[in-house]
Structures are given as structure tokens and as C-alpha cells.
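Q: Two folds, back to back.
A: First:
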Amino acid sequence: MRKKAFTLIEVLIATVVIVISLLGSLSLFNQGTALVSNIKEDSVVTYALQEQMELIRRTSFDAIITNYPVATNFNTAGFAALISPVGIVTLDYPFANNQIVRVTLRLSWQSANNRTMTKSIATYVTKGGIGG
């Protein structure tokens, strides 16, 4: 009576298939981890920019013009989780009158995978307020 067993070639092919599938799974895991890290950084940056923008929105029009005459650096507590963050506030007057100013906040930082990232937000501030 013959015993049924696997041949050496069958075992090698099965081993190669298992190794390839494990390497594919590991690659997906690494990509997923990098994506989660990028999403976390983006959330931190968005929060830090919104926090700074709220501070500026609570400031009077004249104080904004005085405090941020040219591109001015800013820093918030939210930057502690980032690598080499640089925040810049810029003002410009997109309309003919000087009663409306556009405030732009831009933040640059080094991501965990060593890429330079940048995110910005902008808002308009009027001298007379919303109703004025």
C-alpha cells in the first residue's frame, strides 16, 4: 500500500505562495500605518490653524492691521506634536477699498515620512464687522 504524501515541489510551491501573501499583507499594514500617521498630522495642523484663526477673529480690525503688517510668524500649543513647524500670517486687500482684509494662515512642517507639508486657511475681516 502506498502512502500519500506531499512531494518536495508541492511543499516549495505552497511555501512560496504563503510567503508572497504574507509580504503583501505586511505591505498593506505599512501603508495603512503611514496613512493613519498622515491623517493624525493633518488633524493636528487643522486644529492649530483654526485655533490661531479664532484668536485673530476675536481681534479688532485695526489691531489685526497693526499686529500683522507683513508676513508674521505665529506659534500655538498645537505645534508641539509636529516636526519643524513654521506658521505664517499674511494679510492682503483683495478689494479696492481698505475696509476688507483677507487673513491667510499657512503652516509648513516635516511629516513623519520626511516630506515637507503645507496647509493653509483664509478668512475675510471687515472694518465694520458683519453688519457694518
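A: Second:
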Amino acid sequence: MKSQSVLVKTKSWTEISSFFTKLAESNSYFQSMNQFVLEIVSSKYASGLFATTSMHDLWISQTEKFEMYHEVLVVHFDGSKNEFSFQYHEYPHAKKHWSRECKTQDAFKVFERFFEMKKWFLKA
């Protein structure tokens, strides 16, 4: 029996930025994630990425709708460690997936390295 896939509809970067800005204003724990989102919004990548939020995580895809855990990058911030974690889910139920942890100041560099590795953006 084939399982039904659930499509997730993404939000605009304006909505996502507003969401994390409000979280950061009410709790400084979310300030680093808010800064990370603002960096994405102002980057050359924003127009080629689609995203949504799940609780306090950022889910990023190349398509406006995506299946849970299928070709999606999940970004999480752990304020107790001052670290970001990145997990790329190639397909659901995979035993292994690409993941990285880094300090806050290195988050955007790791994000860009992910694009290079997965070839999400062509170099001009």
C-alpha cells in the first residue's frame, strides 16, 4: 500500500521574516534565527528559495510546495549552545542525511556551502 504524501505550502519571505521578527521581539532567544532569516531575505538566494516555519524551525525548498522530509533543508537554532543545525532530507525515511552544526557567526557560510554541494544555484 502506497502512503499518501502531504504537500506543504510555503510562505512568502515577508511572512517568514515577520514571524521571526515578532518572536525575537518577544524573546531574545530567537534573535539569531531572526538575523539569519533577514540575511536570507536580503541575499541573492531569496528569489530562488521557498520556505515555511515549523514551530521555531525554518524549512527551505526549491519549490513552492514540497513533501515533508523530501528534498528540504531544515534549519534549527539551539540558543543553549548558540548553534545552528542544518539537516537536508533527500527523501522520507532515509537512514542517513546531510547535516551540519555550526556557531551562529558561521551559519550563512554553511548555508551557502550547502547550495554549492547540492548545486541548488548555478554559478554565473
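Q: And?
A: The beta strands are 7-9, 50-54, 57-61, 65-67, 72-78, 83-89, 98-103.
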